[in-house]
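Thread amino acids onto this structure.
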């Protein structure tokens, strides 16, 4: 009888310790706030004239981060040099896709369009594409283009950056 009691007590202790660790882990995750989220907090503007300039350049800087470091648009939308490196002098000016599908696909594009400088659609259509995955013709883009679901602010920042691209980056 005593051995059963200690077994049950050890089992209860193990479950209690595991439960406590799970709760602590959940609290740690809930309290964690990435630096990027803190950096996106809006600061009060000092005057209306400079707020538009700061907003536009801030949006373009955020869009650059999304394009270059998150979405990796340059991998497909930038031509390659003879060694296969992205040609930064023609950044986001369209290029041949560097890969093919694993299975033959007649609908697979062989090149990606120019998106830098003057994107291939107006701002509203580009934002719609980046927030819904739907192009101007009402269809989803063909693979390998990711079917993005950005929030509106991120999509607008991407469009601001794409419009700011002027060749070598």
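Threaded sequence (169 positions):
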């Amino acid at each position: 009888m005593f051995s059963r009691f200690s077994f049950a007590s050890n089992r209860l202790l193990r479950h209690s310790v595991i439960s406590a660790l799970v709760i602590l882990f959940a609290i740690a995750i809930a309290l964690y706030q990435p630096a990027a989220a803190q950096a996106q907090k809006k600061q009060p503007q000092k005057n209306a004239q400079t707020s538009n300039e700061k907003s536009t350049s801030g949006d373009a800087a955020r869009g650059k981060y999304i394009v270059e470091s998150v979405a990796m648009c340059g991998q497909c939308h930038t031509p390659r040099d003879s060694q296969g490196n992205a040609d930064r002098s023609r950044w986001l000016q369209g290029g041949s896709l560097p890969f093919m599908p694993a299975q033959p696909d007649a609908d697979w594009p062989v090149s990606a369009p120019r998106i830098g400088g003057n994107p291939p659609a107006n701002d509203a259509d580009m934002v719609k594409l980046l927030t819904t995955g739907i192009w101007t013709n009402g269809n989803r883009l063909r693979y390998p283009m990711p079917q993005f679901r950005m929030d509106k602010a991120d999509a607008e920042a991407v469009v601001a950056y794409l419009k700011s691209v002027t060749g070598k980056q």
